[in-house]
Amino acid sequence: MRGSEESEAVLDRDGLGALVRALLARGRTVIGPTARDGAIVLARLDSADELPYGWGVELEAGRYRLRRRPDGAAFAHSAGPQSWKPYLLPERVRQWSADRDSTGGFTVREEDPESVSYAFLGVRPCDLRAIAIQDRVLTGGAYEDKGYRRRRSGAFIVVAECTEPGATCFCVSMGAGPGVDGDALYDLALTEVVDGEGHRFLVRVGSEEGADVLDGVPHRPAEEETRTAARNSVTSAAERMGRSMPPVDLHTLMAGSLDAERWDDVASRCLTCGNCTMVCPTCFCTTSEDVTDLTGDHAERWSRWESCFDLDFSLLHGGPVRDSSRSRYRQWLTHKLGTWYDQFGSSGCVGCGRCIVWCPVGIDITEEAHALHRESMEREGPS
Question: What gap in Å lies between CA 144 and CA 302, rounded to an integer?
Answer without folding.
Answer: 17
